[in-house]
Amino acid sequence: MLKNLSGKTAIVTGSSRGIGAGIAIDLARRGANIIVNYTSLRGLIAGGEVIKEIKAAGSKAVLAQANVALLSDLEKLVEAALTLSESEKIDIVIHNAATGDDCYMEDMTEEFYEAQTDVNLKAPIFLTQLTLPHIARGGRIVLVSSVSARMGMPQQTVYAGTKAALEGIAKVWAMELGKKYSITVNCVSPGPVATDMWTECEPDVIAGFQPIINSTPAAARVGEISDIVPVVSFLCSEESRWVTGSTISASGGMNFI
């Protein structure tokens, strides 16, 4: 694999499992050094395996415990990245961590709302703010959205709202931060992907998606991690230098943007 990210330092939130783990490993194979983020004991164990794969690829990594909903823990991610970085700069930030529990509008509570918005929306905003004083020229910020932002699926009031917000934020940051910090900011929008987050969805949510999955233009299936990762890696590379403020659909055509 082309080592087109050699010497770069990347923070990938939610990177102990699922899409985040795939992103972390692929960036490492391209030469980047990675901060792998986990929260739970389950994540600690899985994150240890991710670290092994990163080191096997010849890159460096730090496994950092951080609840991204807490600003004090976000500071830990930035500090770990600066310690790992050869240039004392942060080159890449991938906002992947998310929670996607489902809830009908009639059952909505403030606690449910805050649990999702803290992870899906507050965390990307404040981690970016903490990163900016240390971001490298030519840096990359990538936010992971979802087709749910545009599809009106039942039970996804908060999840869809936060993911739609990330797509708007990518445009705002591209304008507000782009020239000032010499960075690009983009969003990737996957459809359902075969991770534990998908398999642990409520059965009626999966059933509601099935007709859409069956009619997906590229293939009648849910996505694989390997379908999403190269798109994110491209947006982290020099080859994507003229792409900013964009949302790229990585959904097999489930949703056109």
From TrEMBL:
Q: Which Pfam families match?
A: adh_short_C2
What keywords tag this UniProt record?
NADP, Oxidoreductase
Q: Provide the GO biological process annotations.
A: monocarboxylic acid metabolic process
Span of domain Ketoreductase: 8-191
What is the reaction catalyzed? a (3R)-hydroxyacyl-[ACP] + NADP(+) = a 3-oxoacyl-[ACP] + NADPH + H(+)
Its Enzyme Commission number? 1.1.1.100
Q: What is this protein called?
A: 3-oxoacyl-[acyl-carrier-protein] reductase
